[in-house]
Amino acid sequence: MDPYCLKKLNEERRARRAAVLLTDLGDGRDRVIKEGDPVAGLLGDAIRQAFLSGKSAVAEVEGHSFFLNVHVPPPRLVVIGAVHISQALAPIARIAGYDMEIIDPRTAFATPERFPDVKLYAEWPQDVLDAHPLDPYTAVAVVTHDPKIDDQALVRALKAGCFYVGALGSRKTHAKRVERLKALGLSDDQVGLIHSPIGLDIGAASPAEIAVAVLGEVIKAFRARGLQAIRQLEKTA
């Protein structure tokens, strides 16, 4: 691999940005394509599908063969609220391969004793997320029921294009939340992306069951993200 390409690829990976190392199998030349870079024609279609699926592949385009080596950030789960649901969610998220972080300014809840082996921030979400920005490969689950904690996290999650944004609460609670978020400048389309009530509809009642429902919905959103977009591309091809 060209040393310049390797440096550029590593920079993208450190910044949690998706990239494809494109190799022309005819002459061996490499180049790095960042997600969102304009690439025209059939090769551009193949690269977009590779980003969406996360799978490396060989693409045959107009008599040329290209290897698309896809580098997609591992999915991350950021939970706002150090509550019982979060305690149950931490071990199953780890088993499913999600890097999980918990943010809660309430120091009585956000303690290492309650959340061993979890990246924990006993700070206000806006301060943490300004220092550690969200990205499209991050899911955000908001579970505190406290607008002072929840709302700013939701604003940042929706503006960052997180692949999943969920919020705990009844439909009545969510209706009030929607009005607050609109007052903070979010559009109807943005607010409409919030999954609320949070989690798959499996009749979950206990914190552990709600945690299972939340992780199931997160996984569904992550996997469906690529499938839905690929199908849309196929329809317009």
In a nutshell, what does this entry contain?
This is XdhC/CoxF family protein. It holds the Pfam family XdhC_C. By secondary structure, the chain is an alpha/beta fold.
Write structural notes for this entry.
With 237 residues, the chain is α/β, with parallel strands linked by helices. The chain folds into two domains: 3-71, no CATH class; 76-224, Rossmann fold (3-Layer(aba) Sandwich), CATH 3.40.50. It has helices at residues 3-14, 41-53, 84-95, 125-131, 147-160, 171-183, 188-191, 207-236; strands at 19-24, 30-34, 57-61, 64-71, 76-80, 99-103, 119-121, 138-142, 164-167. A hairpin with a 2-residue loop joins strand 3 (57-61) and strand 4 (64-71). Helix 2 runs antiparallel to helix 8 and helix 3 crosses helix 8 (207-236). The longest helix has 30 residues, at 207-236. The radius of gyration is 20 Å and the shape is elongated.
- Rounded mean pLDDT score: 91
What is the string of helix and strand elements? HEEHEEEHEEHEHEHHH
For the biggest β-sheet, the strand order reads 7-6-5-8-9
CATH class of the largest domain: Alpha Beta
CATH architectural arrangement of the largest domain: 3-Layer(aba) Sandwich
Continuous helix count: 8
